[in-house]
Write a structure and sequence with these properties.
Structural class: alpha/beta
Oligomer: single chain
CATH superfamily of the largest domain: Aspartate/ornithine carbamoyltransferase
Order of helices and strands: HEHEHEHEHEHEHEHEHHEHH
CATH architecture of the largest domain: 3-Layer(aba) Sandwich
CATH class of the largest domain: Alpha Beta
CATH topology of the largest domain: Rossmann fold
Number of strands: 9
Bound molecules: phosphoric acid mono(formamide)ester, norvaline
Largest sheet: 5 strands, parallel
Number of helices: 12
Length: 315
């Protein structure tokens, strides 16, 4: 008998949401909603399960929500800070995986190279969850669209506009948005567009779901008619030496009140956080009633609890 009442996802890992079907994403949202509504009920779902977290980069949200999430479900977490030595530098990634699976039941990784996560997952039989790589941030995009689903009911046909750098957060947003039939417009300075493979993937998915994917360089054009405007830092972790150069290139891409007014009435502001007030977003927009940034941060907890539960379920 299992204490885990949730349906199992037909995947071992969560590395990219591109591999999940729209129905699987909706099932994660349904589980997240149940866990959120009845936080005190599911305390034994992952009883005695151990979560191993290895992070090569800083984190507030991802670290806390996975740690608190597994504790909510009856398990515990062990955190290994790898900021000074990338995973694979002391012993190869596969050997790390083969050790971890003898002690732990789930692994969460935050890495520079995406390949470290795919390699770790290929080398062990326990679930591996991508807690952010240089390429993707799937847990973030699930929380983003779960939050929009709570707000709008259905995201199909809604316009989400990502303004800024075509980065990891943007890539996963395009994956999940296209799967759920939302229209995703990405607006970047020239040369900072999202990865063309991700764009093509999202456009192809969109042909089945009705999602339109648009890549633009003009913020006025991009944000007109948007139901949500999303931004992220201009220089991601690992790009610290480009901060000054990027600040100049991205200056016209700051989300301010004027940009929000160009969007639809009632358009919401989204950010994965951490935010740099006065850089990619003004303090006024961050603190406005249309900002849903802390709702999204809260939902990281519920969505990741759903993912951990469903990857570990037995039926
Ligand atoms: N959004 C997000 O992943 O935040 P952290 O970097 O603090 O984990
Ligand atoms: N794009 C950002 C996201 C942080 C959550 C980064 O990779 O630093």
């Amino acid at each position: 008998m299992t204490d885990n009442p949730f349906h199992k996802l037909p995947h071992k890992d969560l590395i990219s949401t591109a591999r999940y079907t729209p129905d699987e994403i909706r099932a994660v949202f349904a589980t997240a909603a149940e866990l959120k509504a009845r936080r005190d009920v599911h305390t034994g779902v992952l009883r005695n399960k151990r979560l191993a977290m290895i992070f090569e980069k800083d984190s507030l949200r991802t670290r806390f929500t996975f740690d608190i999430g597994i504790q909510d479900l009856g398990g515990s977490a062990v955190f290994m800070d790898h900021r000074d030595a990338r995973i694979g530098s002391r012993e190869n990634v596969c050997d790390v995986a083969k050790n971890l699976e003898r002690w732990a039941d789930i692994i969460v990784l935050r890495t520079f190279k995406h390949r470290v996560i795919t390699e770790m997952a290929a080398c062990c039989d326990i679930p591996v969850i991508n807690g952010l790589s240089d390429f993707l941030h799937p847990c973030q995009a699930l929380a983003d669209f779960f939050t929009l689903t709570e707000l709008w009911g259905d995201v199909r046909g809604k316009r989400v506009c990502f303004v800024g750098d075509g980065n990891n957060t943007c890539h996963s947003l395009m994956h999940v948005g296209s799967k759920l039939g939302a229209h995703v417009t990405v607006c970047t300075p020239e040369g900072y567009e999202p990865n063309s493979k991700v764009v093509n993937q999202a456009m192809k998915i969109g042909q089945h779901t009705g999602s339109e994917i648009t890549i633009l360089n003009d913020p006025d054009l991009a944000t007109e008619g948007a139901d949500a405007i999303y931004t992220d830092v201009w220089a991601s972790m690992g790009q610290e030496d480009e901060i000054e150069e990027r600040a100049a290139v991205f200056a016209d891409y700051q989300v301010d009140e004027e940009m929000m007014e160009n969007a639809n009435d009632g358009a919401v502001f989204m950010h994965c956080l951490p935010a740099h007030r006065g850089a990619e977003v003004t303090a006024a927009v961050m603190d406005s009633p249309h900002s849903i940034v802390y709702d999204i941060a809260e939902n990281r907890l519920h969505v990741q609890k759903a993912v951990m539960s469903m990857l570990s379920a037995t039926r």
